[in-house]
Fold this protein.
Amino acid sequence: MTDTSWGMLSNQAVGAAGVLYFLALIAHLVEWSALSARKRVPAEALVGAGAPAEQPAVPVDEDREHRVALFGRLGFLLTLIALAAHFVALLGRGMAADPHRVPWGNMYEFTLSGTFVVAAAYVVLYRRFDLHWMAPLVVTFVLVCLMIAVLWLYEPVAQLTEALNSYWLVIHVISAILATGAFTLGGITSAVYLVKARVGPRETGWMSRVPSLEVLDRVAYRIHAFGFPVWTFAVLITGPIWAHQAWSSYWNWDPKEVWAFITWVVYAGYLHARATAGWRGRNAAILALVGMATLWFNFIGINYFSTTSQHSYAAPAPVPSTEHPALAIQG
């Protein structure tokens, strides 16, 4: 295949992934509607969520329960297929460059990679942490980010700049993106914790599938505990080494460096307070969301609000109309 063919394949795969994520979201919304219609949550569902078992006072509609399970499985299957298309989009993007490279040269490619990791982390942790309740939130997040990437961040395939043309790019960005995916899932869990703490337990609707507050708090902590050392490796080890190689200085007070360190401090405070001071529940969830806000501001916001960043190569550029992926798909 030629470079142009790989580029077209990548654009088409992004479109296909977006359609599949949308269909997965529709399947989960149908699942939600069935959950809202049923009268009582089965006892085994409550047990799986960490709540005490009890027999339903009202007989459960077996057809409705079957429909809930069916659309839940369909949504997860569509998410798996979308994830495969998402991977093809990343592969095609890297193969479209000459010479071939990792697909992390600009904000469009970073966003494709970051959303892929979020979706992949959800799939990997789906059974371990029983994350079926998180499905529509993750799918919506990934779908919205892909739309933003295609509509506002898209750039034609180009060679890496001199600063990015280093094997440290692979080491640094892989660890940063992995941590970003973990922190995003942890942030979603913390947000759901705050919602459930406010509305209380429910016997119908989507909230009936959400685990207890204790389980949500524990899952959020475990996900953040995984992401923090990976982020530490990216920000305090590989980042400075790469900066020294590219700019002859380990620390340059670059806005992205500063905000990456701020994110590290917030998450360090979250883990320390929760582990040593017993600062759990609502306060911990709020602090986790503050951390996610600094993370995503650093990821995207700095490129719009800073004019002094040495990471200017990551900022989006205007898209020529003939290069927009939608036109490439049509061609």
Q: What stands out?
A: The chain has two domains: 1-56+63-160, 161-313.
